[in-house]
Amino acid sequence: MITNAQKICRGALRLLNAIRQGEAGDADDITEAYDAAQEMLDQWATDRLLCVVVEEATFSLVSGQQTYTIGVGGDFDRQRPLWLDQASIIQPSNPSFPLELPLDVLDYVQWQQIPVKTTASSLPRRVYYDGNSPLGRLRYWPIPNVTSVQTKLYCPTALTQFVSQTADYNFPPGYVGALRYNLAIALASEYDVEPRASVVAKASEYLANIRAVNDRAVLIGVDQALLRSGDTFNYYTGESR
Asked: Which is nearest to 93 in space by CA: 136, 149, 132?
């Protein structure tokens, strides 16, 4: 759905009866609502299930370099991700059929447990992302010692803050209503009003709908040692199979 921040702000103020249907609203009120919307989007960016999409980003690795910054102006120049869902190494020795090999994405405990971090190899097998700000850091292990290797990152990406009050955005289904109703909740205390129960219910429902859509199921494997193998005996028939 295409809309802009100004329309969302006016809609939120109407839900609080701060402005009437058809009124443009006071410019200062719209500006304050706009600032609150920016703050709300900043908070939403910390909720994994409110991320709009998992973006794929591919970058080249440098022989002998273990650590890379990511963020605007970093070695990997893109929006800094709060999380990495997955990461891979791309081996383009055959450009027509590049080989993508999954990397283990480590947390800080797993990274600490690697005893020799300066080991080198043609293909890294693990990566640790520290989530630093404003530039995050990725550390690859073993350190690549060839120049033809690339890395692909799968980055959950949240809604960005508005660039202006009037810039149009094409939002995915469900987000416009969630923005308008939850912005009304956020503004209620500033206007010293109690939001209607229907507004509170819809704000919660719309966020729950988005989280349900973005909550992707993870397939969990079972170790073969836990699976039954060999013949089984059926005591009803006296047969083994």
From this structure: 149
**Which of 53, 50, 14 has its CA nearest to residue 30?**
14
Quick one: fold of 2-49+159-214? Hypothetical protein yqbg (1.10.3230)
Residues in a beta bridge with 126: 104, 141
pLDDT at 113: 96
Q: Which amino acid is at 93?
A: S
SS (H, E, C) 39-101: HHHHHHCCCHHHCCEEEEEEEECCCCCCEEEECCCCCECCCCCCCCCEEEEEECCCCCCCEEE
Helix (H, G, I), strand (E, B) or coil at 216: coil
Beta carbons of 123 and 144 less than 8 angstroms apart: yes
Q: Which residue's structure tokens are 């081996």?
A: 91
Q: Which residues contact 222 (CB under 8 A, 6 or more apart)?
A: none
- What's the pLDDT tens digit per position in 193-231? 999 999 999 999 999 999 999 887 655 556 555 665 556
Would you list the domain boundaries of the chain?
2-49+159-214, 53-157
Write the burial class of residue 111 (CB in 10 Å: 0-12 exposed, 13-18 middle, 19+ buried).
Answer: middle
Q: Helix 197-214 and helix 175-188: axis angle, to 10°?
A: 140
CB 139 within 8 Å of CB 145: no
